[in-house]
Amino acid sequence: MHIWGLALALLVMTVTACGTRPQTRQQAARPPAVVDPRVLAKRLARAQPDWPANRPVNCRRDKCVALTFDDGPGEYTGKLLDLLRGREAKATFFVLGQMVAADPHGLARRIVDEGHEIGNHSWSHPPLTALPEEQIRAELVQTDNLVRRLTGVRMRMMRPPYGATDARVAAETRREGLAQILWSLDTLDWRDRASSVVARRADAAKPGEIVLMHDIHRTTIEAVPQLLDTLAKKGFKFVTVSELYGATPVPGREYTDRWTKHE
């Protein structure tokens, strides 16, 4: 009986080993899946079909401009949201993870709830081109995870701090499903803290442009009523970046204005 019991135990061990080893080898040898960025963009759009909310706007026909605000949310972001709501204007906010984490008012959630677009501007605003790949990934993923937890949406675009990008940054944004949104009109509001100067520069926007501003500066917020009124009189519609393109931008690709190819 002892011999038969030992033989049975050896048989069970052999069958178990034969059943698990090939699977382990197969899993270890399987290469990571490669997803075409355009396919990923379509998947993201299907996953969140109602965000940002679709509006009857056609930027191939209408005069559109995308106002974008970096580095927040900050102490003036709430006032900016009030101004945009009062004029039925939509914008895109490229937020810093550390600012979202420090915000006691839940402004990231308010940005999403009021129909604006929210994008990834890294966690702590370093030049991503100066970082090793694992740190680039951490800057983006940590911010994405926090914003997704607080708002329920996954960001589809990012803006590299200082506009600094290269092939490594592009590859990482592609992996994370984020398009790189740059700009065509810089108001230089970070340098010139005069609301009249900022408004005048924004007033020069042409149809299809992406305008760069920062919602952490009081003078920028003070410039917003004038620039909204002036551009509205010229027939402009204020849209999110996704509305400007009429489609989810392709992950990894750089965009600077409406004429950037994205097909």
Automatic annotation (TrEMBL):
Residues 1-17 form the signal peptide. This is NodB homology domain-containing protein. GO terms for molecular function: hydrolase activity, acting on carbon-nitrogen (but not peptide) bonds; metal ion binding. Residues 63-239 form the NodB homology domain. Pfam families: Polysacc_deac_1. InterPro entries: Glyco_hydro/deAcase_b/a-brl, NODB_dom, Polysacc_deacetylase_ArnD. GO terms for cellular component: membrane. It comes from Nonomuraea cavernae. Gene3D superfamilies: Glycoside hydrolase/deacetylase (3.20.20.370). Keywords: Hydrolase, Metal-binding, Signal.
